[in-house]
Write the structure tokens for this entry.
Amino acid sequence: MTIAGPWGRLPDSLVGSVHAVGADRVSTLEMPEILGRWHGFSLALNSVNRSMGKDDLYPFVITPVIAEKLAWVHELVRRSA
């Protein structure tokens, strides 16, 4: 919990279901917000792994070109849903 606290990832914030953390709204979010949330989550995951002496769990960087492609796929899926 010492590692999770500074990242705002405490169990109380996850009580309930996906609705409690807003994961059910992902189809209504724009890609910059989704990527912003993912960035914070991946930093927290990596921090936990590093605290255990492990390599980063998510060692990838999402470049602007990749973000554009993800936004395109997100929009394509959203339109077809």
Observations:
- The two ends are 38 Å apart (CA to CA).
- The chain has one domain: 5-80.
- DSSP finds three helices and no strands in the chain.
- The mean pLDDT is 80.
